[in-house]
Design brief:
85 residues, mainly alpha, 85% helix
């Protein structure tokens, strides 16, 4: 009966199911990215290079570095939390 019901309601509920699947997938990707600190480390390296090349001031460097370090801290905290699945 469940298969028959699924087939009969497929056209009507298809967009709803698709939207639900998409929302779940976006949440999974966002959670994975939040727990990944690798991108922030790359940004820190690029920031250091820009400072060395005098493309940014030390004040700009300090401001952006603080924000990136906060992102790394948040990523580590998120990694320590149980999975959101």
């Amino acid at each position: 009966m469940s298969l028959l019901l699924s087939l009969l309601t497929l056209p009507a509920l298809g967009p709803i199911r698709g939207t639900g699947w998409l929302a779940k997938r976006i949440a999974e990707v966002a959670w994975a990215e939040m727990k990944d600190e690798g991108w922030a480390r790359g940004e820190l390296q690029e920031l250091q290079m820009r400072l060395d090349l005098r493309e940014i001031t030390e004040g700009e460097y300090a401001e952006k570095e603080a924000a990136l370090l906060e992102q790394i801290r948040a990523a580590r905290e998120a990694e320590a939390l149980p999975s959101q699945r």
